[in-house]
Amino acid sequence: MIHYFSKGIVLEQNKEPALSRELAEFLDPSMPPKYRTGETGDISSVGPEKLIAIAKEAGIVDETDGQPLFEKLEKARYNKVQTLVADAIDDEPYISSQLCPSFQLTDQLIGGVELAQKIIGAQKSCIAIYRDIYGVGIKIPEKLGEIPIERISGTYPAEYRSKTIYQSRSTAVIGSCALIHLYRAVYEKRCQTTCFVTVAGDCVATPQNLEASIGMTVQQLLDHCGLSFEPKRVVVGGSMTGYAITDTKSTKITPMTRGIVAFREDFDEMNYTCIGCGRCAQVCPEGLSPYYIYKFVTARRYAMLRNFDINLCIGCGTCSYICPAKLDISSVIMRGKQEYENYLQDQLRRRQKDSAQ
Q1: Whether residue 285 has a cis bond before it, omega within 30° of 0
Q2: Which residue has the higher pLDDT, 168 or 32?
Q3: 285 near 252, Cβ under 8 Å?
Q4: Which has fewest Cβ within 10 Å: 107, 142, 191, 322?
């Protein structure tokens, strides 16, 4: 078991009842499935290069980082990594769009792990799952098939930390859903046209995990699950790392849309202000000072950001979660990262112009 003694917070998971409910298909009939060319054949005789080509043709995207799966497989094979980790950690509240398919499509996940292991040439493999999930209606076993489950412990963001530590050990980390799609591409010739999404929140009448067609709108998924209240805030992506949207009818889901969470309250409307408590700095896993970064970004004092390492922000949302004033600190800082980069580029152009004169 991996355990992390570092800054962060312990989050209420709120994964039920979505996690225990049956994974449901919700497909758009106007978006028919796509199939790759060629025959399935005897997989035992298919080499790694051909399997990588299949992953490329199928258009599989890793849901954890948005990278094409074939690129990750090529890199891992080139680096001769010895261990493959299927990432099903899901440490954000409400979100269980990796856990649910892992337990309900177990044969496909195991098959995908075995294929990826063959491509990479890894000697070992495991499935990583967040340990600190309580009150769920399913029992987490020690193994799925013959593949051991490694329980990731520690404060949020455990998934980010685990990737950093795993990669330092010459280990390839691939999202469990991408591995399920790899199995389908090889054995069923199916290209990736769907993704797994958790639809939850205190406005959703029937929280559940869906396999939905990529390109469907957020509103379609919310309507399918039903709304018990009109949401004031809809977050797409993850409850901590996602982004709030106002137009649910035109926002479409992508391979990286791991969740849609609808809330009854929108704290932005309450116009709270920072009270200077410093809790955001106490819990920041990167040891930053979100209080000062937030202030300088909102005041557009970009020159001051040189001393506060804004580029190290990982966008985990911990600062926003802990803030007693419910300020959207994380989104402001992430926006500020791009604005700061633009500021530095502008400063560089000015210096080059001055030196040329």
Answers
A1: no
A2: 32
A3: no
A4: 142
